[in-house]
Description:
Blueprint: E1 7-17, H1 23-34, E2 37-42, E3 48-55, H2 56-69, E4 75-86, E5 95-97
Parallel strand pairs: 2-5
Antiparallel strand pairs: 1-3, 1-4, 2-3
Helix pairs in contact: 1-2
Amino acid sequence: MNNADPFVSVEFEVYGKVQGVYFTKYCKELCEELGISGWVKNTKRGSIQGKLQGSRGNVEHMIIWLSNTGSPGSQVERCDLNNWQTLAKPDFRGFTIRF
């Protein structure tokens, strides 16, 4: 890991056809590959919400996936980002799917 790459945290919410297409499962797998910690869950209003924490480069890679790619069969309309923070260390161990 590049020490010059700051450790960041951001909350996200993805809108579109994102439930019933294993979006949370693919999100978790990619975050684990990238070494990102945090969580993801389906909301009652049909969106996907979560929090990412990791190196800025990896978090930005994940945001591109959330905003443009998504899981197979999903149709992402938009991804809103909130509460960007720079962290000394992650608040979470690993990445979980919440229910």
